[in-house]
Design goal:
- The chain has six helices and twelve strands.
- The chain has 280 residues and is an alpha+beta fold.
- It has two domains: 168 residues, no CATH class; 97 residues, no CATH class.
- Strands 1, 2, 3, 4, 5, 6, 7 and 12 form an eight-stranded antiparallel sheet that branches.
- A hairpin with a 4-residue loop joins strand 4 and strand 5.
- The longest helix is centred in the C-terminal third of the chain and has 17 residues.
- The chain is globular, with a radius of gyration of 22 Å.
Length: 280
């Protein structure tokens, strides 16, 4: 019988800090020392370990959501009675992750309504910053997208009325297609960059075909260093297409499987993402 598989999503952990050694910050930030509380539930990094692979070192672990105290009804066989027992630190849900140290690529498995994608990202970043003492360090996980998928979605828009761009300087490396944009941000020592283009509602919309600068910024966002939202009309309705909605995903083993086995399935997608930086 084939083993069940679950879906992993790929993003990039962007670390915004003045310190140059961001790899050290990365490994320090995922150490299992910190607990944060939300609505009576504890959150933390658990079972953190490093793994070696053909594509480099990974940090593996779980973002765990647990309840400090839970009342459970239990059976007492000796008296055939029922009673309540306090269970401490009962796990509500756990979301597995694999973080590639050289590139800061993260693959993670959300868990239904308990730890959906947006909650995983928020809690991971919160725990990461808390582990570093919230001291002049900010972090953000942005999705890594399938190349050109946003541009394919743009072709369905009859008229584009708005383009919003949000970028981070790259962490470890950049690509030819967006190197000039990235180096400018690095030179300006900018921690982030935004631009917002809007057309007059009475016009025919923004003219963006063959705009090489916008193409480079979309590619930078697709590689996990930002976000691009494009608003326009499709079949007479206003819709927004975004890099947030088009992440790279793959299927891999469940939480019960050995992490090395799961990583073997994820490594092909990590390698494919890394090849973007070497194939130009």
């Amino acid at each position: 019988m084939a083993r069940r598989k679950v879906r992993y999503y790929f993003g990039r952990l962007n670390i915004i800090a003045q310190r140059v050694d961001k790899d050290r910050l990365l490994t320090q930030g995922v150490q299992p020392h910190t607990i944060v509380m939300h609505r009576g539930l504890g959150w933390g990094f658990f079972k953190v370990a490093t793994l070696d692979s053909p594509v480099g070192e990974f940090v593996h672990g779980f973002v765990v959501k647990y309840k400090p105290e839970t009342e459970e009804e239990v059976a007492i066989p000796e008296t055939h009675d029922l009673d309540d027992k306090t269970i401490e630190n009962k796990v509500r849900a756990k979301a597995r992750f694999f973080l590639h140290v050289p590139s800061h690529i993260i693959a993670y498995h959300p868990v239904g309504q308990e730890i959906p994608r947006d909650v995983f990202v928020r809690r991971f970043v919160e725990l990461f910053e808390a582990a570093l003492g919230n001291f002049f360090v900010k972090a953000e996980i942005l999705p890594i997208d399938e190349p050109h998928r946003l541009r394919e979605a743009m072709k369905r828009l009859e008229k584009i009325s708005r383009i919003f761009v949000y970028l981070h300087p790259s962490n470890p490396s950049n690509r030819d297609i967006w190197r000039r944009t990235d180096e400018r941000l690095q030179r300006l020592k900018a921690s982030s960059y935004r631009e917002d283009y809007q057309s007059d509602g009475r016009s025919e919309g923004l003219e963006i075909s063959d705009d090489e600068e916008l193409e480079s910024k979309i590619a930078m966002a697709e590689d996990g260093y930002g976000r691009v939202d494009i608003t326009g009309q499709e079949a007479g309705e206003n819709i927004t297409v975004s890099t947030r909605d088009m992440p790279v995903t793959t299927l891999a083993g469940t939480d019960d499987e050995d992490p090395e086995v799961v990583l073997n399935l994820l490594a092909a997608s990590v390698r494919r993402i890394l090849q973007r930086f070497t194939s130009e």
